[in-house]
Amino acid sequence: MRSSSSIEIEPLNPVIGAVVRGVDLTESLTDAMFQQIHDAWMEHLVLFFRDQPITPERHLEFGKRFGELHIHPAAPYAHENPQLMVIHTDKDSKRQNGSGWHSDVSADEEPPLGSILHLHHVPTYGGDTLFANMYAAFEALSEPIQGLLLELEARHVSDYTGQYGDHKPQRAFPSATHPVVRTHPVTGRQALFVNAGFTRRILGVSRNESNALLTMLFEHIANPAFQCRFQWQKDSIAMWDNRCVQHFAIWDYYPESRSGIRVTVKGDKPF
Length: 271
Ligand code: SIN
What we know:
By secondary structure, the chain is α+β, with helices and mostly antiparallel strands. The chain is built from five helices and 16 strands. The strands form four sheets. An eight-stranded mixed β-sheet has the order 1-2-3-14-6-16-5-4. The protein has a three-stranded antiparallel β-sheet with strand order 13-7-15. It has a three-stranded antiparallel β-sheet with strand order 9-8-12. Strand 4 (77-78) and strand 5 (81-89) form a beta hairpin. The longest helix has 15 residues, at 207-221. It starts with 7 loop residues before the first strand and ends in a 6-residue tail after the last strand. The protein binds succinic acid (SIN). The site of succinic acid (SIN) has 10 residues, from strand 6 and strand 15.
């Protein structure tokens, strides 16, 4: 087993994202290594690992180090285990999972705290994923707007109709009300928590005001100054913190295929 001192963390930029080297995720992690990865995750929000041909069993084991595993309300899964969410796009796909800014399943009452995606098949070019820092997005707003948003809640709604085919056992369309700005339970920092994928309405204001605020915030969130972009290779892994990160998977590789498995970790009610 490798000593924890062999881990190297290389930030992609000052705002979000770091590549982790010197870790073999096909092996069980020592507590010291887990702690280093966890600390780096809290600091950089998204971590990337290269050349990690993990089995589904190891993937599940790694995910469980961060908490109980989440089951997606509607997505297909692998190996008859709903904790192994399938991410797959090919020439016959009608859509690609995650191609729009979102935080995973934010319409759950207790949205997942994080997601760990392993891609085992990648297109020749493209299929990158963008990640955006929602602490930075909140902190870049003016004080009056921050003050307003801190008072507000928003309705998050899922509708997976026609998105994932018909499979069992799950088939739920959750919806939930969350604060527009949430406090991260580990770092204590405030992050914007509205996203174009799920947030439909800011509550306690008129529909016009809600639309105007959401349009402004969705544009603001998409500022490249808050982002990093990850170029996948076969057996890359990315893990992102849904409490303070949004992501956008780019479907620019048609008719090629892209496939992987996501393990998602349960979170708690945003506050
Ligand atoms: C997702 O989990 O939203 C998909 C991310 C990706 O495929 O890069």
